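stage 2 :: seqdesign
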């Protein structure tokens, strides 16, 4: 795939450590909801340092959008992103991604692992096809929840949050367990969509196997 140099249109804080980037969209460029692209910064010394970020905009939008968690202590690409502003440029490389919507199911995300699901849910919402899709979202605190209000508006009671480091009324507390998954009907859906940090993914996949969820029903991406 040819690379594209795209100009940043705006940078906003989505949470305390998550940035939202809106950029230009190359003519004829396309992707499927849930897919990502390898991105580098068009700045000397950073052009070849590619990282994968998910498209959170819709394919039909006239811009691209990315929601990216930053890690200042890592002194890497995401830290450098904190220095960028409107008018700066990114380099868009190949499109890829294993998560694609196959049908109604339970979506399970950990932190910024929710990003592939943002475009999927926005696409379903735009087409009035949200149905009984459900999002189980694990975070440390309320302040870490990406697009909390938007998901609440789209999914209502099918948006379930669990917090590991904060106890808040109306939010579940702790880590995702088999009991939590069973309680929220993971066995009642044809598909389970899973994205998060590798240790979380491995733990939940084991729990899903214990709950007799078939391997082919699990659609996953390691964040």
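stage 2 :: out
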């Amino acid at each position: 795939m040819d690379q594209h140099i795209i100009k940043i249109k705006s940078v906003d804080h989505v949470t305390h450590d998550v940035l939202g980037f809106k950029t230009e969209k190359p003519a004829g460029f396309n992707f499927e909801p849930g897919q990502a692209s390898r991105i580098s910064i068009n700045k000397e010394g950073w052009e070849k340092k590619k990282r994968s970020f998910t498209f959170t905009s819709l394919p039909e939008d006239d811009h691209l959008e990315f929601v990216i968690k930053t890690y200042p202590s890592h002194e890497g690409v995401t830290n450098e992103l904190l220095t960028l502003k409107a008018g700066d440029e990114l380099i868009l490389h190949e499109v890829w991604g294993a998560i694609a919507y196959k049908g109604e199911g339970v979506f399970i995300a950990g932190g910024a692992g929710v990003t592939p699901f943002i475009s999927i849910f926005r696409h379903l919402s735009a087409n009035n096809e949200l149905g009984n899709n459900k999002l189980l979202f694990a975070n440390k605190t309320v302040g870490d929840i990406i697009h909390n209000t938007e998901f609440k508006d789209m999914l209502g009671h099918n948006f379930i949050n669990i917090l590991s480091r904060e106890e808040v009324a109306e939010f579940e507390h702790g880590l995702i367990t088999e009991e939590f998954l069973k309680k929220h009907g993971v066995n009642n859906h044809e598909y389970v969509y899973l994205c998060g940090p590798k240790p979380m993914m491995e733990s939940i996949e084991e729990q899903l196997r214990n709950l007799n969820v078939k391997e082919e029903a699990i659609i996953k991406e390691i964040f």
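stage 3 :: structure notes
- The mean pLDDT is 94.
- Residues 135 and 159 are 5 Å apart (CA to CA).
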